[in-house]
Amino acid sequence: MRVLLVEDDLDMAESLKASLAADSHEVDHAGDGELGESMALNGAYDVIVLDRMLPKKQGVSIVRDLRGKGVSTPVLILSALHDEDHRIEGLNAGANDYLGKPFSTRELLARVRSLWHGRDLGPATRLQVGDLEMDLLARTVKRDGKKLDLQPREFRLLEYLMRHAGQTVTRKMLLENVWDYHFDPQTNVIDVHISRLRSKIDRDFAQTLLHTVRGSGYRLEG
User: Where does the OmpR/PhoB-type domain start and stop, copy by copy (predicted)?
Assistant: First the structure.
């Protein structure tokens, strides 16, 4: 796996590079935000590990701009700012995961591997529920032939729901498999993303596909 590490603390960067390399990853390093964004735009990386507080350009702004330019590479933000508001800001900007400092190297490596494995599409390259279609290679979603514009987290959420079409998906399942949280952060991050996703896949269509199962979770069915 090819990893881009954007970290201005050189001691930490060297330590993380060594740990990632020992875990069989190829690592490129950028020491400031502007260089990191340029490398992310021009390099083929599997995962980006991005410090939040960087010289020249902040990590959250980098993620937001990368997503706006169509870069869907999974991003793990590292930050000493890891209260609820800061985590939500990072995730809403388009980050796939958020890890507070200090952290254990084992946890960071596990999260990097999880982000990569989450992109493993398996043999299927297209998913369909009713007239809702997802192309996993082109990273596009259409309903009744109309292309829908989804943010990376919305795409990942919808992919999980489509893979479990007809089943009730619990909040715990979403937290663990879409956000990689193995605890309940006690935030409304799921509700916010479900609401945004519902507005895009259901609002302009006669049939509702995404249903709330009161007290249990959500179900996608056509």
Answer: 124-222
